[in-house]
């Protein structure tokens, strides 16, 4: 009996932290839609004893929620949210040396390891091919300011959507507020990023600005749309995942982040037409190689630093 107790005690000592990290609870904030659900479901299969709650919402809504909860966090991890949002809220996340750290280039990991790159949500234009002829397609960000596109453009509100803020930030870095205000005058704004590509696909409006993944998905589903990469460049940007500082289940959060950073998880993300930031995961079939897409040196740190000021000016123009 003493031997059995000794062995049990040794096992508990050696494997205790691992065992405790394979049961209990885990709360995941998921702004990544279907891609996030695939990763969460795969993790659930590996660790069926962990009770997982997933909260699905937009980046803006989830970061507002995390800010409100910062003195008593309710979530453990956020999965695949825009890097600009992380950079704008550095105090919300816990540094962690993931077991997958060596598989990431340093430019997609926070210097303190408080977030890790997930996918590369390149922004592009979605055009309904039944509503516009090819010679009418906008080919640059600057072209979107042309009066010919008045009431033909839909965008998500950048105060509510991380990708929509990145779109605004790219226009500002390329051309400034004079051009961005003209684009705003041409556009109608919706509260959901999903509404942008769906409205264009259904033929309710001619043009939208959205992530390339959304255009590819609509094309695969047979909608009459095409993808236009702006010739003046789309920003090379990424979204990321991180552990929420002070979350209720820190060991399970670490376990999940390690899995979310794995090649297996990134291949699941790539299966939804998203480009992985990992070099060992191929680009999704049917998307142009990244090297063939016009890009410009987008400054995510500047976009993050200017976020409050930019959104305040956007709101003022929007409500004038």
Explained architecture:
By secondary structure, the protein is an alpha/beta fold. It folds into two domains: 2-120 and 237-287, D-Maltodextrin-Binding Protein, domain 2 (3-Layer(aba) Sandwich); 123-235 and 291-318, Periplasmic binding protein-like II (D-Maltodextrin-Binding Protein, domain 2). The chain has helices at 2-20, 33-46, 59-68, 83-88, 162-175, 177-186, 193-201, 212-220, 250-260, 263-270, 300-305, 307-318, and strands at 24-30, 50-56, 77-82, 93-94, 116-117, 119-120, 123-128, 153-156, 187-190, 207-211, 225-228, 234-235, 239-244, 275-276, 295-296. Strands 1, 2, 3, 4, 5 and 13 form a six-stranded mixed β-sheet that branches. Strand 1, helix 2 and strand 2 (50-56) form a beta-alpha-beta unit. Helix 2 (33-46) runs antiparallel to helix 10 and helix 5 (162-175) packs across helix 6 (177-186). The longest helix has 19 residues, at 2-20.
């Amino acid at each position: 009996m003493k031997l059995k107790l000794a062995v049990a005690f040794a096992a508990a000592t050696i494997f205790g932290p691992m065992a405790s990290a394979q049961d209990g609870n885990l709360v995941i904030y998921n702004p990544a839609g279907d891609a996030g659900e695939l990763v969460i479901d795969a993790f659930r299969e590996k660790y069926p004893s962990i009770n997982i709650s997933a909260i699905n919402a937009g980046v803006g809504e989830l970061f507002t929620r995390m800010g409100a909860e910062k003195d008593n966090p309710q979530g453990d991890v956020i999965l695949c949210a825009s890097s600009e949002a992380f950079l704008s809220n550095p105090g919300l996340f816990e540094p962690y040396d993931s077991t997958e750290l060596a598989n990431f280039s340093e430019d997609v990991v926070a210097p303190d390891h408080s977030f890790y790159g997930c996918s590369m949500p390149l922004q592009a234009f979605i055009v309904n091919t039944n509503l516009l002829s090819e010679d009418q397609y906008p080919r640059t960000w600057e072209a979107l300011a042309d009066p010919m596109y008045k009431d033909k453009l839909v965008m998500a509100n950048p105060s509510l959507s991380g990708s929509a803020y990145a779109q605004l930030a790219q226009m500002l870095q390329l051309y400034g507020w004079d051009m961005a205000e003209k684009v705003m005058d041409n556009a109608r704004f919706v509260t959901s990023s999903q509404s942008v590509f769906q409205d264009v696909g259904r033929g309710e409006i001619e043009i939208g600005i959205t992530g390339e993944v959304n255009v590819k998905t609509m094309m695969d589903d047979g909608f009459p749309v095409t993808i236009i990469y702006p010739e003046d460049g789309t920003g090379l940007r990424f979204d990321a995942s991180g552990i929420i500082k002070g979350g209720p289940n820190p060991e399970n959060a670490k376990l999940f982040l390690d899995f979310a950073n794995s090649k297996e998880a990134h291949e699941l993300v790539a299966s939804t037409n998203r480009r992985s930031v990992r070099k060992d995961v191929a680009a999704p079939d049917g998307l142009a190689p990244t090297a063939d897409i016009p890009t410009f040196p987008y400054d995510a740190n500047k976009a993050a630093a200017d976020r409050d000021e930019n959104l305040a000016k956007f709101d003022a123009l929007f409500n004038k």
